[in-house]
Automatic annotation (TrEMBL):
Localization: Secreted
MF GO annotations: beta-glucosidase activity
Principal place of residence: secreted
Catalytic activity field: Hydrolysis of terminal, non-reducing beta-D-glucosyl residues with release of beta-D-glucose
Assigned keywords, A-Z: Carbohydrate metabolism, Cellulose degradation, Glycoprotein, Glycosidase, Hydrolase, Polysaccharide degradation, Secreted, Signal
GO biological process: cellulose catabolic process
Highest taxon, organism lineage: Eukaryota
Ranges where the Fibronectin type III-like domain occurs: 700-769
Entry GO CC: extracellular region
Record's protein name: beta-glucosidase
């Protein structure tokens, strides 16, 4: 065996075609497709890592290779088992790490630089604790349904936005010396019935069925970005695709992932994803359980043809290649430490958390110049989300589902999205600090329904009701005379009385969900009633929403007393500070919606699937693609978000920059890591002038949407570029978008390839998916 592998290693140096002959096996019916040594995929920048991996594996017996693929160490070659860990929002369950914002929050920034900075900082903390692989970044669940319980962990509901962010994550993690383990592969869009255990075994795990076009154009899309940008591992899902477990699905893993996308790394299973020895190994799982993959089973399989030597070698190579690719062999990484060890890896990452939190916040409504605040005389805070939970910070949550709300300030998720907080700045804390600087009088009721049952202060007297003129002592007993917010009326401890007369009323609401259960609601009666009862008494009610996914606001959004709404994800340890930065204008808001907020639940077309087979019959039409196609008016559309300044768009210019490339309907490039190379060619350039015509400096997110010709059978318009640009008041900036071949391609089911259909493409740039300001048509092809 050793000699065979040595030939493999040597052959690699010469040509890939030579290496192909070493894959000969006793079982030729098992697909050679997806085997790295076949040479089908040009490994590019992975070539050196592949050579190192092959050289390492060449030193091993089959028994030792089996040790590696089942997560063991082989001391003879100094191979130490890889340490895997959850948590792109922090090293999960660890002390002395940073509590970053969630991935979904990061996607709200629409800022590529900030995404990179944060994800690299996260990865450096994993590196410093001695981990080699992260179970992330998370592209999917993508957000087929807004009720999906895990959307807080993912990078937005649009394949393009999600893909760009996912690619940035793969690159940032790799740059930090960590193997990025992108997840979940694939069509794992809901928590209900995801696992046989604890569910109805007749229907669980559910099987997702998507047609080939939808699969490529919506769900596989972002994995192209991830693989192209350096994913070294991919986590297959717990669920099934087309009736076969994702982790044992040869079409999915050996075919789509390893061949079409040219993925060179290891596939590892989500919990329970592996149920057989040969189904999983032949299906494309590379890292699995020693209870299925025993030495005896796999060696017998090779002997009787159920399995192949080539595949075992491939699995072993794939287990170590990522380690070499990111330079984990360079001797620099600190030793692995336990969760409570005092190894402080935080550096100055709190500044990233604060900056990115503020940059992610989305201003949805702002009337009467309610925001930014400027030294208000008085302020009242409402809702349990404004302040700390009794015992916290938000730690530790179940993977069996959580929510629908959280009775304290929510700044981190649950399950795999759980944040490890070293501390948590609540809005109450940061607003109080600000009040002390500004001379603002501040009150709070940190409860959504609170009514005091206290009847006495001094001596237990009865609280006065209304504008009682009883004795001073009685007033003090009820808190009226000393409270004073209400300018003469008595102030008892209830929500309407605290709201009455406050110059600013701030209401804080949240929505929580996470791994293990889907959302049960997209709005919350208790919280919506709180907003309404404050607004009934306060003509300057500002609502702050921190949510795990789309949150319906229609119970009160049109109330004229609700003057401003700030909407965001879960912001991490600096949450209150990020909010204050935006509320007081230290940071001009520039977050944009990564999903559509509907007016009603029934406006969304996809709910939770309760059957054994989940047919993705809606095709590509999820989120704004559905709203646009079926003329459903959203409350706030995908891409929406206000600023304290205003921007004007002009002078759009769109040119084909590589007509040679576009002369061919299908890509002609070789298959490489990330798919055929020319899918990534920049073929069209668009530029636009954006002018800040308001009085404050601010950042605008210019968004490029493309409408394909009818023959391509595509949604009305699709995001195909975005750039966040800081523009000072009165200045202009030229914003340029480079459109890649894949950005104007459609999946041709007959040809099984990405096609550029000839015809007129309309390029529009604007401030949201429904606020397109300038357009230009470009004719592609004959
Ligand atoms: C590899 O196999 C092919 C076809 O089976 C054969 O033509 C070629 O000569 C072989 N190459 C080597 C180096 O053995
Ligand atoms: C294993 O590592 C040790 C210490 O770094 C080194 O001395 C030894 O040569 C290595 N062995 C192999 C087989 O690489
Ligand atoms: C080893 O890799 C890490 C992570 O990329 C890097 O920070 C470090 O500088 C490298 N060390 C050496 C000696 O190259
Ligand atoms: C699943 O089956 C559908 C319909 O037969 C097919 O279009 C699709 O490509 C299959 N998907 C996978 C991942 O095999
Ligand atoms: C592993 O399997 C091989 C081949 O069947 C056998 O020679 C070897 O003894 C086994 N090793 C162990 C530890 O069982
Ligand atoms: C090859 O392996 C598959 C299972 O992976 C098995 O069904 C088939 O019978 C084997 N073919 C031969 C010729 O042994
Ligand atoms: C909020 O106040 C209500 C009414 O006073 C009380 O029943 C409830 O327990 C409080 N909730 C919390 C989370 O303190
Ligand atoms: C809001 O009410 C206050 C009194 O509480 C009043 O001074 C102010 O003019 C009102 N503002 C608007 C916009 O109605
Ligand atoms: C708005 O607030 C004022 C108190 O400032 C109140 O009189 C009025 O009824 C409120 N309007 C609504 C629509 O609730
Ligand atoms: C899913 O689609 C298939 C094929 O169109 C159909 O036979 C099946 O009944 C559908 N299942 C559900 C649960 O809708
Ligand atoms: C497009 O071409 C025109 C004419 O050559 C040129 O003025 C413009 O700058 C080009 N725009 C872009 C975005 O390349
Ligand atoms: C409860 C109470 O005493 N209400 C009085 C408040 O003041 C107004 C006007 O002075 C009276 O009409 C109310 O009866």
């Amino acid at each position: 065996m050793r000699s065979t592998i040595k030939v493999l290693a040597k052959a690699f140096v010469i040509t890939f075609a030579v290496a192909q002959n070493t894959t000969a096996s006793t079982n030729t019916t098992t697909a050679a497709e997806g085997i790295l040594s076949s040479g089908d995929v040009d490994l590019g920048t992975w070539t050196d890592a592949y050579a190192k991996a092959v050289a390492l594996i060449a030193e091993l017996t089959n028994e030792e290779k089996i040790t590696i693929i089942t997560g063991g160490s082989v001391t003879s070659v100094n191979w130490t088992a890889l340490e895997f860990k959850d948590g792109t929002q922090s090293v999960q369950g660890y002390d002395y790490v940073t509590g970053f914002s969630e991935a979904s929050t990061l996607s709200m920034t629409w800022d590529k630089t900030l995404m990179y900075n944060q994800l690299k900082a996260v990865a450096l903390e994993f590196y410093g604790k001695g981990f080699q692989v992260t179970n992330g970044p998370t592209s999917q669940p993508l957000g087929r349904t807004p009720w999906g319980g895990r959307l807080v962990e993912t990078l937005g509901q649009d394949p393009y936005l999600n893909g760009i962010a996912f690619g940035i994550g793969a690159k940032a993690f790799s740059d930090a010396g960590i193997v990025a383990g992108g997840k979940h592969f694939l069509l794992n869009e809901q928590e209900t019935n995801r696992q046989a255990s604890g569910s109805d075994s007749d229907v669980a795990p559910y099987s997702s069925v998507a047609d080939d076009k939808t699969l490529h154009e919506t769900y596989l899309w972002s994995f192209y970005d991830g693989v192209k940008n350096g994913l070294g591992a991919v986590m297959c899902a717990m669920t099934k695709v087309n009736g076969t477990l994702s982790c044992e699905n040869e079409d999915l893993l050996q075919g789509l992932l390893k061949t079409e996308l040219g993925f060179p790394g290891l596939v590892f299973p989500d919990v329970g994803g592996q149920t057989t020895a040969f189904g999983s190994a032949n299906g494309g799982l590379d890292y699995g359980s020693s209870s299925y993959w025993t030495n005896a089973t796999l060696q017998a399989g090779i002997n009787n043809g159920s399995f192949t030597q080539a595949r075992l070698d491939d699995m072993a190579v794939r287990n170590v290649i990522g380690y070499f690719k990111v330079g984990l062999d360079n001797g620099t990484q600190p030793a692995y430490v336990d969760a409570d060890a005092y190894v402080d890896v935080r550096a100055n990452h709190s500044t990233i958390v604060r900056t990115n939190g503020a940059a992610s916040l989305i201003l949805l409504k702002n009337t009467n110049s309610a925001l930014p605040l400027s030294k208000p005389k008085s302020m009242a805070l409402f809702g349990s989300h404004a302040g700390p939970i009794m015992a916290g910070p938000n730690y530790i949550f179940s993977v069996q589902g959580s929510g629908p709300t959280y009775a304290g300030h929510l700044a981190g998720g649950s399950g795999s999205g759980q944040t490890s907080f070293p501390y948590l700045i609540t809005p109450q804390q940061s607003l109080t600090n600000k009040a002390s600087l500004d001379g603002t009088m501040i009150r709070w009721i940190l409860n959504n329904t609170y009514t005091s049952t206290t009847t006495g202060g001094f001596g237990g007297g009865t609280a006065p009701s209304g504008n009682s003129t009883t004795s001073t002592l009685a007033k003090r007993a009820g808190g009226a005379a000393i409270a004073g917010l209400s300018g003469g009326t008595s102030l008892s401890q209830n929500i309407p009385d605290y709201a009455t007369g406050a110059e600013v009323c701030m209401v804080f609401i949240n929505a929580l969900s996470g791994e293990g259960a889907d959302r049960t609601e997209l709005r919350n009666t208790e919280q919506d009633d709180l907003v309404s009862s404050v607004a009934e008494n306060c003509n300057n009610t500002i609502v702050v929403v921190n949510t795990v996914g789309a949150r319906i606001l229609d119970a009160w959004i049109e109330n004229e007393n609700v003057t401003a709404v700030v909407y965001g994800g879960l912001l991490g340890q600096e949450s209150g500070n990020s909010l204050v930065d935006v509320l007081y204008g230290g940071v001009n808001p520039s977050g944009r919606l990564p999903h559509t907020i509907a007016k009603n639940e029934s406006d969304y077309n996809v709910g939770i699937c309760e059957t054994a087979v989940c047919n993705f019959t809606e095709g590509n039409y999820i989120d704004y693609r559905y709203f646009d196609k079926y003329n459903v008016t959203p409350r706030y559309e995908f891409g929406y978000g206000l600023s304290y300044t205003t921007f004007d768009y002009s002078g759009l210019s769109v040119n084909i920059t590589n007509s040679t490339a576009l002369a061919s309907t299908y890509p002609t490039g070789i298959l490489a890591v990330g798919g055929k190379t020319d899918l990534w060619d920049e073929v069209i350039s668009a530029s636009v002038t954006v002018t800040n015509n308001g009085t404050l400096d601010g950042s605008e997110v210019s968004q490029l949407y493309v409408a394909y010709p009818d023959a391509a059978d595509q949604p009305v318009r699709q995001l195909r570029g975005f750039e966040k640009t800081l523009i000072t008041s009165g200045s202009s900036a030229t914003v340029t978008f480079n459109v890649r071949r894949r950005d104007i391609s459609m999946w041709d089911v007959q040809a099984q390839d990405w096609a550029v259909v000839g015809g007129d493409y309309v390029f529009s740039v604007g401030a949201s998916s429904r606020d397109l300001r300038v357009s230009q048509t470009v004719t592609v092809g004959a």
